[in-house]
Amino acid sequence: MLPAKNKRIIDLTHSLSNSMEGVDILPAKTIAKDGWNATTLQLYSHVGTHMDAPLHFNVTDRTIDTIPPERLITKAWVVQVKDVHPSCLITISDMEPIADKIQKGDSVLLHTGWSKKLHTTAYRDELPRISEALAHWLGEKQVGLLGVEPPSVADVNNLEEVTKIHTILMKNDIIIVEGLTNLDQLTKDQVTLISLPLKVENGDGAPARILAIE
């Protein structure tokens, strides 16, 4: 491994805040009254930067707490997706830069710039989506993890589509991470990815801390 001084760590995680739908952070204890500060957290399981478990769409009964730890630290390829427009489809042709490089178990991070639209209606309602053909391609390549900036890999307003794309990916044992940010800070096309979801017993998904190491 490289000496620590030669490493650069980029946090790809949105901070959870009360400005997000599905987050409620309330005071529980205070220094003045109780002698320490603490808060009560109420979190939707797929809020902010998060990881899906196959249970999310009943593809298998695997829950977030049973994903093997060795699946959570991987080599990841960063793909610059060009010509991103509202509700566009990300296709196999966008994978051309890594098509001959990717190996079984590698992760793929799609840089679309969509995280800049957080707190806008477009962020959720006009997101770039994974095409059905690309979902199958990622499965054929035996990708281990797919990370995207939008809050979903498919149109959340189209139940048929969102179910189909999640199902294809999950049936191919691809871990899905959604809601990434700061991909524009990455300077390499290959990084070490650390993806750590909250270990929620029997969870269908959970907020996650995602780090890239260059």
TrEMBL record:
<dbReference type="InterPro" id="IPR037175">
    <property type="entry name" value="KFase_sf"/>
</dbReference>
<protein>
    <submittedName>
        <fullName>Cyclase family protein</fullName>
        <ecNumber>3.5.-.-</ecNumber>
    </submittedName>
</protein>
<dbReference type="InterPro" id="IPR007325">
    <property type="entry name" value="KFase/CYL"/>
</dbReference>
<dbReference type="Pfam" id="PF04199">
    <property type="entry name" value="Cyclase"/>
</dbReference>
<keyword id="KW-0378">Hydrolase</keyword>
<dbReference type="GO" id="GO:0016787">
    <property type="term" value="F:hydrolase activity"/>
</dbReference>
